[in-house]
Amino acid sequence: MTKLLFNFLIFPGFLFTVVFGLAANWIDRKVTARIQWRVGPPWYQPLIDLVKLSIKEITIPRTASKELFLLSPMIGLSAATLVSTLVWLPNIDRVSTGFSGDIIVIVYLLTLPAIAVILGASASGNPLASLGASREIKMVIAYELPFIISLVVPVIKSHGVLKLSDIINYQAAHGSFVASLSGMIAFIVMIFCMQAKLGLVPFDASEAETEIMGGVLIEYSGMLLAIFKLTKAMLMVALPLFLITLFWQGFNFLSIWKYVILLVIIILIRNTNPRVRIDQAVGFFWGKMTLLAILAVLLAIKGM
Amino acid sequence: MSLRLKALTKSIWVYHMSTGSCNNCDIEILDMLTPRFDVERFGITLVGSIRHADAILVTGSLNLKTIPRIKAIYEQAPKPCVVIAIGVCACGQGMFKNGPNCPNPVDSVLPVDVYIPGCPPKPEAMIAGVVKLIEKLKGKK
Predict the structure, then answer these.
(1) Which domains are seen in chain B, by residue range?
(2) How far apart are CA A16 and CA B52, in angstroms?
(3) Which secondary structure element, helix H or strand E, spans residue A297, and what is its range?
């Protein structure tokens, strides 16, 4: 019991992922600044932003549904904590952790932060926030389809294993899935889905700052906004790690370069693309990405 | 207490409120985010929603239509929040001193913390103003 609490709250779970995620957030801001030929913020900037937000006043709009408005950041944060623990543990201990079917649990938990954002935005009673919430709903419907289809590829290739640690062990024995054609295609599809799940630039229509002023987060202030930022930072660790676990032989602290490569890919996509409209995003995911994912599944069935 | 003050002064998120300006000051404000000045070095970023803001940048001569708006904006801002008046219009009405549409200076409506004069003020002047604001905050506490 104590070990479980320790796992969830401190080592691979909450605290460790937060530290890791804030570092990733700083790398994101710094690399973005360097791409734009700026200097960029100092290393402690994400942390000090959170500290500042947590000492600011929390404002609750008069039109808001109070309980849901206060509760939804907690839903997102707890889901992010659970999912990061579930993804970290098989990577640290490859034998005794995880349970059969934990991939399915992780897929559900990865959707929960987006659901929390939608709930909070709808509860805040702001018209721009509800506009952002409707865009977020469309985005979730759009990216979940290719995400789940391409998730089938590693399951097929490891002959029907639904357990993360077994998938890592299978890859350790037979080579990583990303080296095969179907694995490569599914991995690329997953990277785009990850970009949309993180809400980064080509797919950030739900919180477009220049268009609907922060969209879903427009009414959130102080601690609640800090919790949403924290959830984003934790997902920025958990999602690339999930991809590495599924396709790239898992993660240990010697292979941190895998994580860095994925992070840099995310940042480069983010900095070299303009924001797409929501209909373009849905068309992109349901058109090209779904076709590619189905192609990857067919190739995986053929054994390629 | 010192961590609180450091957090507040090292991460100022600004909200940009134009009260009928000629857009000149607004363009110069955006100039501060460009590679030449890059105020993100000091943690200053522009945010879209007043709920996220720590500082309100007021530009323009406050006209009759925007007085209720700017009051509402200031009341919606989570405290502690500072107000910075940018440009000679916002500081002291400028050439609209005798205009029938702009009878109130900004500081008769909001508690202004820093005045940055100029038509428009240079980005260097704005950065100097923010530095003075931070020094004032540190001296007060």
Answers:
(1) 2-140 (3.40.50.12280)
(2) 27
(3) helix A290-302
Q: Does A225 touch chain B (CB under 8 A)?
A: yes
Question: Nearest 5 degrees, angle CA B58-CA A132-CA A128?
Answer: 45
Helix, coil or strand: residue B15: strand
Asked whether A44 and B44 are in contact (CB, 8 A), the reply is no
ipTM, 2 dp: 0.84
Chain-chain contact of A209 with B40 (C-beta, under 8 angstroms): no
Give CA–CA dist B81/B61, Å, rounded: 21
What amino acid occupies position A271?
Answer: N
Mutation target to probe the A interface, by most A beta carbons within 10 A, among B46, B52, B137 is B52
**Does B1 reach chain A within 8 Å, measured CB to CB?**
no
Would you call the peptide bond into B120 cis, given omega within 30 degrees of 0 as the criterion?
A: yes
Residues of B in contact with A48 (CB under 8 A): 6-7, 10-11, 43
CB contact under 8 A, A42 and B48: no
Q: A187: which 2 tokens? A: 């991995």
Question: pTM for the complete prediction?
Answer: 0.89
Give the Cα separation of B82 and B84 in Å (integer): 7
Extract the tokens encoding A180.
């095969």
Looking at residue A292, what is its pLDDT?
92
CA–CA separation, B45 and A64 (whole Å) = 27
Q: Is B47 left (phi over 0), alpha (psi -120 to 50) or beta?
A: beta
What is the average pLDDT across A176-180? 83
Contact predicate B13/A229, CB 8 Å? no
Which has the minimum average pLDDT: A248-252, A297-301, B105-109? Answer: A248-252
User: Does the pLDDT at position B89 exceed 70?
Assistant: yes
Band (pLDDT 50/70/90 cuts) for residue B1 is low
Q: Is A42 left (phi over 0), alpha (psi -120 to 50) or beta?
A: beta
Residue B83 three-state SS? strand
Instruction: Give the residue from chain A lying closest to B41, CA to CA.
Output: A41
pLDDT tens digit sequence for A11-24: 787 888 899 899 99
